[in-house]
Automatic annotation (TrEMBL):
Molecular function GO labels: GTP binding; ribosomal small subunit binding; rRNA binding
PANTHER family the record matches: GTPASE ERA, GTPASE ERA, MITOCHONDRIAL
Identification of the protein by name: 50S ribosome-binding GTPase
Listed InterPro entries: GTP-bd, GTPase_Era-like, P-loop_NTPase
SUPFAM superfamilies according to UniProt: P-loop containing nucleoside triphosphate hydrolases
Organism per entry: Candidatus Electrothrix marina
């Protein structure tokens, strides 16, 4: 892409939403979320 120094490319749109991961206890919901996001966001305890 050829742009002059005065022209700035427009930033990408940010989208937001809500996702619910539901299921019985100890079904792996937190593990699934952590693996999908590739970060340790949800607390996982050994059973």
């Amino acid at each position: 892409m050829n742009t002059s120094p005065m022209e700035q490319p427009t930033p990408k749109e940010h989208r937001s939403g809500v996702v619910a991961v539901i299921g019985p206890p100890n079904a792996g919901k937190s593990t699934l979320l952590n693996r999908y996001l590739e970060q340790k966001i949800a607390i996982v305890t050994p059973t």
